[in-house]
Amino acid sequence: MDRWFLNLDVMSGPVPETVWLLTAAVAVVLLVRDHTRTWTITALPTVAGGAVAGAIAVWISDATDAFGVPLPKGTTWWMAAAGAGVGLGVASMWRTPVWRKALAGALILIAPLSAAMGINGGFGLTPTIADVFGVNTLPGAGALPGAHSHVPAPNQTTPLFLRWKPPADMPRAGRVGTLSGADRVGSSGRFVPRDATIYLPPAALVKNAPALPLVVMMNGKPGSPNPRFVAAALNRLAARHDGLAPIVIVADQLGSPVQQPACSPYSTFGDVSRYVNTDIVRYARTHLNIIEDPKYWTIAGYSDGGGCSLKWAVEYPQIWGNMISISGDDYPGASEPATSLREAFRGSVSLELSQRPAAFVKENAGRFAGHVALFTSGSLDARFSGYARHNAEMLRAAGFTATLMEIRDATHVGTALSAGLTDAFDQLYPVLGLSPHA
User: Fold this and answer.
1) Using one digit for the tens of pLDDT, what is the confidence trace for 266-308?
2) Order of strands across the sheet with 401-407?
3) How far is the CA of 156 from the CAs of 161, 266, 285, 318, in angstroms?
4) Which end of the chain is more exposed for a tag (fewer CB within 10 A), N or C?
């Protein structure tokens, strides 16, 4: 399928606007007819019934937590409108000419599509057709700023931002690409990940580039290793800090949108923990120009990925000096407890409990001094805000420097991710030597 089609924006702009306009036009045409008593009696109950059914579907979804996260604002109205459109289409099928039946059939199809685009915009996570279907359209990563030698930690008294002078030919924005083919990160523990992606900041794309901090980022479920959001956040910050930003590998901790390995080494899908904490770490050390010091390494994640970043930050303090959880789960697999117990821990409750972050906090007690943890959550996202408070308190008690940030007027999606990443990395920049302390 052509890349231009897969990269069409279905969250904003001409594509969804055209669909909404077409839906409204078809609905108006079907409504404009002789307002006979029979038509009113036929149409009103089906239109109203469809609207009520759509609204009830949202209520049931929220009440049963069908999606594991709060639905975005406006979802009820979109679903009610879709139900009303379908109801109008059904009513227009009776005792009408063929052309009206054709329009009615079209409305029954495009009313839900129109609502889906509106709801998708509310989620704010899948802007393109490729994103919706989890298709990676990014090109290869291109030439990587390889590790010509192992670079020691920079002088603690002279952070990188004071030693760095950007050259005139430095790009204005970073580059993203897929680590595929010869550049693919191999997996040694039976876990089969989708190809990781990479973000290279402007400072990494110049001759004699400096060694930079490393971030390994994981997205939510369902989701894919798409670097779009972290790249946007770091490009904004890099523009303010002479092109400096971490190098980011966006990893796949799921293997598929329908799997739940819960970041477990015992998963039926293979050892995802080994993939992230051994294979990716080895790859970064041998392929990338990064600083060789855990203080400058960060494990980060959003939602499902945030639960994993929390777990691995406390399980492997010798690898990860910093942790970011953007609206993260309480622990890996918390949003799907039954599924994660079955798929990640083979039905063993004791095994699942042994892999929770609290168990590793206890196991590695006394090893977290100097480690930094950053938690963000949407102010309208009560459940995940509770997770963030609980885990920030746990890590603070364990010795982390833990910070909790609230994203105003955000739920679990959209702004919670984009603003959460920007705020978290803004706080982390001084720790990584990329900016002065505020």
Assistant:
1) 999 999 999 999 999 999 999 999 999 999 999 999 999 999 9
2) 175-178, 197-200, 247-251, 214-218, 297-302, 322-326, 372-378, 401-407
3) 12, 39, 21, 19
4) C
The answer to whether residues 120 and 126 touch, using CB atoms and an 8 Å cutoff, is yes
Instruction: Supply the DSSP symbol for 9.
Output: B
Give the closest residue to 218 by CA, choosing from 273, 282, 299, 284: 299
Rounded to an integer, the average pLDDT of 204-215 is 96
Residue 324, SS3 per DSSP:
strand
Contact of 130 with 136, CB cutoff 8 Å: yes
Q: Residue 291 region, left (φ>0) first, then alpha (ψ -120 to 50), else beta?
A: beta
Cα–chain center distance at 191? 21
Write down the pLDDT at residue 144. 85
Please state, in angstroms and rounded to a whole number, the distance separating the CA atoms of residues 349 and 270: 19
User: Are the CB atoms for 54 and 80 separated by under 8 Å?
Assistant: yes
- Give the separation between CA 438 and CA 435, rounded to whole angstroms: 9
In the chain, the amino acid numbered 384 is F
Express each pLDDT in 38-54 by its tens digit.
777 778 888 999 999 99
* Cα end-to-end distance, the chain, whole Å: 48
Query: What is the Cα–Cα distance from 200 to 238, expressed in whole angstroms?
Result: 11
Are 387 and 328 contacting, i.e. CB atoms less than 8 angstroms apart?
yes
Q: Give the count of beta carbons closer than 10 Å to the beta carbon of residue 389.
A: 14
Question: Looking at the predicted structure, is the pLDDT value of residue 1 above 60?
Answer: no
Note the pLDDT of residue 126. 86
Residue with tokens 């966006």, as numbered in its chain: 250
257 with 134: CB under 8 angstroms? yes
Q: How far apart are CA 430 and CA 279, in angstroms?
A: 28
CB 238, CB 174: distance < 8 Å: yes
Going by C-alpha positions, the residue among 257, 255, 252, 250 that lies closest to residue 268 is 255
Which DSSP letter does residue 202 get?
G
Q: Which of 46, 71, 47, 43 is nearest to 57 (CA)?
A: 71
Closest CA to 25 of 95, 92, 103, 138: 103
pLDDT mean over 65-93? 87
Q: Tell me the three state secondary structure of residue 164.
A: coil
